[in-house]
Amino acid sequence: MGVDRWITCAWAVFRKDLQVELRTRYALGAVLLFAVTTLVAVSAALSAATVKSEVKAALLWIILLFAALSGLARVFVREEEAGTAPLLRLSAPATAVYAGKLLFNIALVFAVESVSVPLFLVVLPPATVNCGLLFGVLILGGVGLAGSSTFVAALIAQASSGRSALFFIVAFPILLPLVLIAVQATVGAFDSIPTHNVQAQSALGLLALYSLVMTTVSFLLFEYIWHD
Question: What is the DSSP letter of 127?
């Protein structure tokens, strides 16, 4: 199959998922509701406390992680429930399907970040914000989160029951290194301590490496999972 045909298939998968989501608003509604509710609860509980930048960075990524995971798990489950997975297997190459699903999940993660992060900065404002560093962390962390979650979603899609619980069980150990690195990088964006800034630059490189490795491995292994 030519490159043009592959790109067309991947884009068609992305557009289909986007149209379904805009029509139902299931995933986006779930993740935004979780993120906003959690932010309000956290800000109310910590309103009178002095919170260190390390704690704020950890809270931000915990909120982003669980908000995103509440919607990312359904990207392949929806195909199995609707009975469209066999048709998708016949009409598009496996890597194009993964690319389309990955693009949709990246868009979903970025949508969550675009709402959650500004709201977080308002309700729990850090001492300082390095916008360039924070933007880089969110981009790389979001891509890594979407790439790993898309692959795990494909793994658990054909399970007969308990898909949501199985998704979290499988995804957590895979995503834990990503979250730890992202928290370390975000600490440097939330204060001006030189040591934290140096660590943040190193963590940013690790985030890029994690995203590249996980996405590459997912592309290589997806075809075996998709056609199993």
Answer: S
